[in-house]
Amino acid sequence: MSGATRRDTSGSRYHFCVRLVVLSALLLAGCDSLFGLTHLRDRSSVDADASLTDTGIDTPSLDAGTDGRSVDAYVQKTCAQLGYTIQIAGSTTFYRGSGGVQKTWIAAEIDCEDDSSLSNLVRTHLVVLSGDVEASNVYSGVLFSNAPGGFWIGLSDRIVSQNFKWVTNEPTGYPPAATGSPWASGQASNGAGEDCVVDSSQVTMDDVPCTENHYYACECDSFDPKPGNF
Fold first, then answer.
1. What's this model's pTM, rounded to 2 decimal places?
2. For residue 57, what are the β-bridge partners?
3. Closest listed residue to residue 104, CA positions, set 26, 193, 38, 44
4. Tens place of pLDDT for every residue, the chain, 230 residues?
5. Which helix (H) or strand (E) holds 147?
């Protein structure tokens, strides 16, 4: 065999070996890895994997309540912890004043109610009076005699005229009627829009428009506000 023939044969063998090596590399590494391609798996496989590791699924936190609030929102709080630190003679409940703020009757009731939540055993609302003594003590001991125009109490006839009801169903029996003591002279007058009640330093009640702004006293006890009463 001539030298030229041997060189041709060697060259063919060399190229054959190179092709074989490249083909082996392709088979071992895969075309995707070798050429930097992104391999698209079967969609059912992708969905199955995603269902196992999907971090977008909403899973409530262990410290969250059923409505998304923190567990802290369900912790029972006492009246004192809610800011009701005033206790006056002749009463087993606790009070707070309006802090020098004047509001309409509805705004005052809402402000009082917002101090507690439905989860609490104690509830908060505009003060519900049991008699003249409590009314006098609230004026002097809760509002510190700083309500010259009178202060809102949780009494109104917003639902039925001349049928005054407290904001709770607490059976106080006070006031005993829609006229006479503890009402001021000529009250309750039931004038136009005069459906909400203020008490005064003289422990006399007066029905005035609910849109007026007055100081107010809030009370903390076990009685729920009853929206049907007002």
1. 0.68
2. none
3. 193
4. 444 444 444 455 555 554 654 455 444 444 444 444 444 444 344 343 333 333 333 333 333 333 443 444 457 899 999 999 999 876 789 999 999 999 999 999 999 999 998 889 999 999 999 999 999 999 999 999 999 999 999 999 999 999 999 999 999 999 998 899 999 999 998 888 899 999 999 999 999 999 999 999 999 999 999 999 99
5. none
Host H or E run for residue 141 = helix 132-141
Q: Token pair of 124, please?
A: 């908060």
User: Could you give the CA distance from residue 162 to residue 178 in angstroms, rounded to a whole number?
Assistant: 6
How far is Cα 197 from Cα 157, in angstroms, rounded to an integer?
Answer: 9
- DSSP 8-state class, residue 229: G
E-strand spans in the chain? 94-97, 123-126, 151-156, 165-166, 194-199, 205-209, 215-221
| CB of 190 closer than 8 Å to CB of 196 | no
| Greatest pairwise CA separation for the chain in angstroms | 141
Which residue, 104, 128, 132, is CA-closest to 222?
A: 128
Beta bridge partners of 108: none
Q: Alpha-carbon distance 175 to 205, whole Å?
A: 9
C-beta separation of 198 from 184 below 8 A: no
Alpha carbons 88 and 93: distance in angstroms, whole number: 8
Q: Judge contact between 168 and 224, C-beta under 8 A.
A: yes
Interatomic CA distance for residues 157 and 142, integer angstroms: 25
Based on its alpha-carbon atoms, the radius of gyration of the chain, rounded to whole angstroms, reads 40
The structure tokens listed for 75 are 């912790």
